[in-house]
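Predict structure. Chain length: 126.
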Amino acid sequence: MQHFHIDHGIRLKKLMKALDLNQIEFAKSVGVSQPSISKIVNGENSLSAELLTRMAVEYPTLNLHWLITGSGEMFFDIQAGTHFYVQEESAPYKRTKKDSLEERMERLEALLNRLLETLQNRPAPF
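Prediction complete.
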């Protein structure tokens, strides 16, 4: 058990108390199991990136920096303007070239054939 696991557990417990939620309610709110939360609270596991992301979505005023490091306040003060939101349009991911699975397999096969030819034409190392 690492020291920062214990620290994460302590801060997570403080967070749940501030939100007036027990482990079951909190776990349900972020879409994970109660045993997962229990392991973090008990210092057996650390906070995962997935859990942190779920918490950020469910509790947008939560200061993740505080949760991870203990520095700063537990929540951002939205009214005072101390928040770190980036307002931007989400752009869909676009591939520049659409390849079918067959095309990718053909390219891979061609590369493997060239590699085999190169290896076969090399003199023996001894």
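Summary: The chain has a mean pLDDT of 81.
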